[in-house]
């Protein structure tokens, strides 16, 4: 009889603990949802590290958000610490733009960014991933909550989950790591200052004003290189072979990959606009080690060291993203 009561007690305790644990998960989700719903603006500074092809690429990230009436305005500044290459992703009343001060150009594209993909540096996206994951695991550790959820990154099936550490009192994120299916960390974001009551200028989310401010505040932005390098991939997709580059005059280079997949890498001279120009492009925004890129179902395009590069394939997937991230100047490989 004593053994029977002992078993019943253990089962009852397990049920109670499970109920408490579940209640805690719901409480944290509800609190995070309430925090985001009340946001009218914020500014975040962070450091993002992307691990790709056994190398690490570090970006200084600044995020500005402002809720104007029913419209969400965003400005994300990404600066590569190695190259000083800087880009701004800007969403305002007119659409979504990628600003490139090295070219004095902005690239406008139609997209429902940032809601169409996980975004590791946006508070709304982080909370959305937590709230929407019915199987999210939340553990209290000292003065933090450690949350594990699934992720949904465009053009990538390799990235499967993330671990988020948030302050238990403020619910502000402290650290975030994104992992692939082998449990290898691929993206790491370390959050710094988070200001939920920022003061923005009226022109903060204007394209022209943003471009001017970038040039004034970042004097170390690289200028357009006088000669465009030729880039070849160092990552090989199984069953494929890279053909020697074909030079079509001085303005374009073609690298072809044959075999199990047919891939074409087009490299064109990038040009500097004397007066700031806006070019219309198509695709969804993805982040490479070089910064922001636009990807359609069959092509990914971005700026790299004096060149506008397009990788064209039957589909854009993890292999193509990895190949794009592996492009190196052919001269550095000799």
Unreliable stretches: 4-23
What is the general shape? globular
**End-to-end distance, in Å?**
80 Å
Order of SSEs, N→C?
A: HEEEEEEHEEEEEHEEEEEEEEEEHE
Structural class assignment: alpha+beta
Determine the mean pLDDT: 90
Oligomer: single chain
Compute the number of strand runs: 22
Read across the widest sheet, the strand sequence of neighbours is 7-8-9-10-11-1-2-3-4-5-6-17
Q: Figure out the total of helices.
A: 4
Percent helix range: 10-25%
- Over the alpha carbons, how many angstroms does the gyration radius reach? 23 Å
What percentage of the residues does DSSP assign to strands (E)? 35-45%
State the major sheet: 12 strands, mixed
Please tell me about this protein's structure.
This protein is of the alpha+beta class. The protein is built from 4 helices and 22 strands. The chain has helices spanning 2-37, 123-132, 207-217, 318-325; strands at 41-52, 55-68, 71-80, 86-92, 95-100, 105-109, 137-141, 144-150, 159-167, 173-180, 185-195, 231-232, 240-242, 246-248, 252-259, 263-269, 277-281, 284-288, 291-295, 299-304, 307-312, 328-329. The strands form 3 sheets. It has a 12-stranded mixed beta sheet, with helices on one face. Strands 13, 14, 15, 16, 18, 19, 20 and 21 form an 8-stranded antiparallel beta sheet that branches. Strands 12-22 form a two-stranded antiparallel ribbon. Helix 1 (2-37) runs antiparallel to helix 2. The N and C termini lie far apart (80 Å). The model is unreliable at 4-23 (pLDDT under 50).
């Amino acid at each position: 009889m004593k053994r029977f009561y002992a078993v019943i007690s253990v089962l009852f305790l397990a049920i109670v603990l499970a109920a408490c644990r579940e209640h805690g998960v719901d409480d944290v989700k509800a609190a995070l949802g309430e925090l985001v719903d009340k946001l009218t603006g914020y500014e975040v500074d962070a450091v993002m590290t992307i691990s790709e092809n056994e190398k690490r690429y570090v970006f200084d990230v600044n995020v500005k958000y402002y809720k104007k009436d029913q419209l969400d305005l965003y400005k994300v500044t990404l600066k590569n610490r190695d190259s000083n290459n800087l880009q701004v992703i800007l969403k305002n009343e007119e659409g979504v733009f990628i600003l490139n001060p090295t070219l004095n150009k902005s690239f406008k594209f139609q997209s429902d960014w940032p809601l169409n993909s996980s975004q590791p540096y946006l508070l709304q996206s982080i909370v959305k991933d937590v709230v929407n994951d019915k199987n999210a695991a939340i553990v209290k550790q000292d003065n933090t909550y450690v949350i594990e959820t699934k992720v949904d990154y465009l053009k990538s099936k390799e990235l499967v989950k993330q671990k988020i550490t948030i302050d238990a009192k403020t619910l502000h994120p402290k650290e975030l790591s994104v992992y692939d299916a082998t449990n290898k960390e691929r993206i790491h974001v370390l959050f710094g200052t988070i200001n939920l009551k920022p003061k923005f200028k009226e022109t903060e989310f204007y394209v022209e004003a943003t471009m001017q401010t970038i040039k004034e505040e970042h004097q170390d932005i690289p200028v357009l290189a006088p000669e465009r390098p030729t880039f070849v991939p160092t990552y090989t997709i199984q069953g494929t072979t890279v053909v020697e580059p074909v030079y079509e005059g001085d303005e374009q280079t073609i690298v072809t990959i044959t075999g199990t997949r047919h891939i074409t890498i087009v490299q064109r001279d990038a040009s500097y606009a004397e007066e700031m120009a806006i070019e219309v492009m198509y695709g969804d925004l993805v982040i490479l080690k070089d910064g922001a890129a636009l990807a359609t179902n069959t092509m990914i395009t971005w700026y790299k060291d004096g060149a506008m590069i397009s990788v064209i394939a039957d589909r854009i997937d993890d292999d193509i993203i990895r190949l794009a991230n592996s492009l190196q100047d052919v001269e550095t490989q000799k």
